[in-house]
Amino acid sequence: MSTPAHGTAATEERSARIPTTLRLLALLEEVVRRGGPVSVAELLEPTDLPKATLHRLFQTLEAEGFLQREPDGRSYSVGPRMRELSVATLSTLRLRTPRLAIMRALAKDIGETCNLAIPDREAMVYLDRVETEWPLRVQFSVGARVPFHCTAGGKLYLSSLSDLRLESYLRNADLTPMAAQTLTDPDALRAEIMQVRQQGFAIDNEEFLDGVIAFAMPLRDQYGRMPATIAFQAPTQRMSVAQGHSFLPRLRRAAEELSALL
User: Fold this and answer.
1) How far apart are CA 75 and CA 41, in angstroms?
2) Which of 29, 128, 131, 155 could be cross-linked to 202 through a Cys-Cys bond (beta carbons 3.0 to 4.6 Å apart)?
3) Which option is the CATH number for 2-77: 1.10.10.10, 1.20.1250.20, 2.40.240.10, 3.30.420.40?
4) What is the pTM of this model?
């Protein structure tokens, strides 16, 4: 009976030697690394912290907006302040300068607008855009939010969800028609997402805006997750879907270069 007590005491002693700020950062790092909702019980072993300490840290991070509690009441995921911090980090000058150089080269080679977007809880958010020099173009500002279900980047994000989470999305999402070809039937959108998973890229075939197509590729981090997408879009007056396919190798190369920056 003395061994467990001794082990608990040793764990608490090690925990006490680690500054609270460092423990908070280490906990955030572990939550982000896992890429989905996590519970206190799941982090007991990897963090080597007492259960009471973990509960206290989770509560602190939740109160400050860095984590948020999931509907089950037991698990936590990244909160609004952490998402804002991640966007600000990706937007820092030393990261943005080489990123924009890659995007400008891509836009020049394709001759159309390119954008980098990240998934938020309810939409894709434009982090960077490089506009084409053509007078006929679709303009969106950095920070603009666009739906998941009818954009190339959004469909890529949906394809990264587990089957359970995708089905939950399809049951509950408002699949508002944004253009004549928007997929508003959950079964049709599911079939499209399955195809995106298989082929590794996504197409917006005049689904978000009439007369505009887009192709998107995922960026991958060191864990194989998709933190962002790179895409190009063009009016159908200048480019058909068939022509867009010819630029996929160039888009893939840009996605690989951008992934390396992560």
Assistant:
1) 9
2) 155
3) 1.10.10.10
4) 0.71
